[in-house]
Amino acid sequence: MQWDATAPQRARQFVADVLERSGAGDRLREQAILLVSEVVSNVVRHASSEATIVVDVSDEHLRVSVTDDGPGWPNERRPDARGGFGLYLVDKVATNWGTYRIGDGKTVWFELANA
User: Does residue 43 sit within a domain?
Assistant: First the structure.
């Protein structure tokens, strides 16, 4: 998938489609769409690379992973007028989240309770 200014919208649609097919509730879909949009926006803004989204849905939780090949490392910061809402929102909304290195890039993942 090409990662440009349209990537967050396409990521939201991808996650919405997966969750609709899985029968997920409205709240889970809304939270997942918000968070994937934030994470993918960070890829577009900071990594400037292609990325892969993986969505795993179980009876207990939803896990979304976004992996990119870009340089740098995601840092949560306090949002201000210049931005910084991405990982801040992930931290506030997700039940669990994290990052890990993969090759020269990294993966940002988050989980939401499937209740």
Answer: yes
Residue 30 domain flag:
yes
Instruction: Output the domain CATH number for residue 58.
Output: 3.30.565.10
Q: Which long-range contacts (CB under 8 A, 24 or more apart) does 13-19 make?
A: 14/53, 14/55, 15/53, 15/55, 15/64, 18/55, 18/57, 19/55, 19/57, 19/62
Q: Give ∠ CA 36-41-47 in degrees, rounded to 5.
A: 115
Asked if residue 2 is part of any domain, the answer here is no
Residue 84, φ and ψ in degrees, nearest 5: 95, 15
| pTM > 0.85 | yes
What is the residue range of 84's domain? 7-113
For the segment 35-61, what is each residue's pLDDT rounded down to a tens digit? 999 999 988 888 878 889 999 999 999
